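Lecture notes, part 5. Sequence design as translation. It can be helpful to think of inverse folding as translation between two languages: the language of shapes and the language of residues. The source text, in structure tokens, appears below.
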């Protein structure tokens, strides 16, 4: 069977119009702009409008990515939506996006790995493309975390925002090589023993409610730095590449202090880390494609650049991937 490599042909994103600043939050809970900036680096986050859903955000990001790729919905064989905030318990929100963009072929499904969702979805789509089961795929990260936050809990409600990012992957003949465009390697991990450190306390089977996000922030923080550093070392080790070969690090945007902690540990220069956490907050599965889109649009990430992405999220789930743009 022939082998294909998955090339990122286009990136797109969408952020809801409404911006919630730290100052706004300080009038809602006992917090301050100073505390939030100092502990997280976050200045503001976007919040979906009433009635605006994850499918709406994902559809806009998907259409933008299709436009950037110069392809149409009818060219797509597959949609994988990474989300922990689906519109409904079922059907999969990916199928709602499939209908919204006018794609009447192929298949679409949701994938839930919370903040690591985009890396899981990218690796999954890459497997379908590598085996020739899909030629073109939309990989979307879209979230409306504002709907699962406890707006009276200052330890969590200041951290998250809503948004969506998407990439179009297209199969090119040949296995991935170091110099060619495409997904070079990915590494995925999970460890369910830590599920009670970051979870939502509701769901259809257990409580028949949607529930609210609960997090032991301090402990997640420590695991994040260790596990993310480990997965970056693993993808570099597996491919024989080093930190100096990487042009851009596009981390999951959870906390500026986590980004700095990981960079210090691995010797990644600050100038090569793409950060959007100040403007977007933590948008979970959407954060990496959102940050990639920002850096592609402002001219930092260019065709041929080697990009390393990484994330850790509830589960725990975590992982990293290397992509030649
Ligand atoms: O994307 C998924 C992965 N998630 C993450 O990676 C998040 C990881 N965790 C974090 O980013 C950080 O742990 C937080 C930003 C959540 C918290 O920062 P921290 O430095 O770990 O603070 P802390 O939880 O140890 O809390 C320090 C103090 C506490 O007060 P006391 O007990 O020392 O009196 C908190 O009650 O800060 C207090 N605090 C706040 N104060 C003002 C917690 N939240 C707030 C707040 N405003 N919003």
């Amino acid at each position: 069977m022939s082998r294909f490599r998955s090339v990122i042909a286009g990136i797109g994103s969408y952020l809801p119009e409404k911006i919630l600043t730290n100052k706004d939050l300080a009038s809602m809970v006992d917090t301050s702009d100073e505390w939030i900036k100092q502990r997280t680096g976050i200045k503001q986050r976007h919040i979906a409008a009433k009635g605006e859903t994850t499918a709406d955000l994902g559809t806009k990001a998907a259409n933008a990515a299709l436009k950037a790729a110069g392809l149409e919905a009818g060219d797509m064989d597959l949609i994988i939506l990474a989300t922990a905030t689906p519109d409904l318990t079922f059907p999969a929100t990916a199928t709602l996006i499939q209908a919204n963009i006018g794609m009447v072929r192929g298949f679409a499904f949701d994938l839930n790995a919370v903040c690591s969702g985009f890396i899981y979805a990218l690796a999954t789509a890459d497997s379908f493309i590598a085996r020739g089961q899909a030629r073109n795929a939309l990989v979307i990260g879209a979230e409306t975390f504002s709907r699962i936050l406890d707006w009276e809990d200052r330890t969590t409600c200041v951290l998250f925002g809503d948004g969506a990012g998407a990439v179009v992957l297209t199969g090119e003949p040949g296995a991935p090589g170091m110099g060619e465009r495409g997904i070079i390697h990915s590494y995925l991990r999970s460890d369910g023993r830590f599920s009670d450190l970051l979870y939502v306390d509701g769901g259809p089977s257990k409580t028949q409610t949607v529930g609210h996000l609960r997090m032991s922030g301090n402990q997640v923080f420590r695991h994040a730095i260790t596990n993310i550093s480990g997965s970056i070392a693993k993808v570099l080790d597996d491919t024989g590449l080093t930190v100096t070969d990487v042009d851009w690090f596009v981390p999951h945007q959870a906390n500026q202090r986590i980004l700095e902690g990981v960079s210090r540990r691995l010797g990644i220069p600050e100038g090569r880390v793409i950060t959007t956490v100040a403007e977007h907050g933590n948008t979970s599965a959407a954060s990496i494609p959102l940050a990639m889109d920002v850096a592609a649009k402002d001219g930092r990430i260019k065709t041929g650049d080697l990009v390393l992405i990484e994330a850790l999220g509830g589960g725990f789930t975590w992982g990293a991937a290397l992509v030649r743009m």
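The translated text above is only one of many valid answers, since several sequences can fold into similar shapes. The domain at 182-324 is CATH 3.40.47.10 (Peroxisomal Thiolase; Chain A, domain 1).
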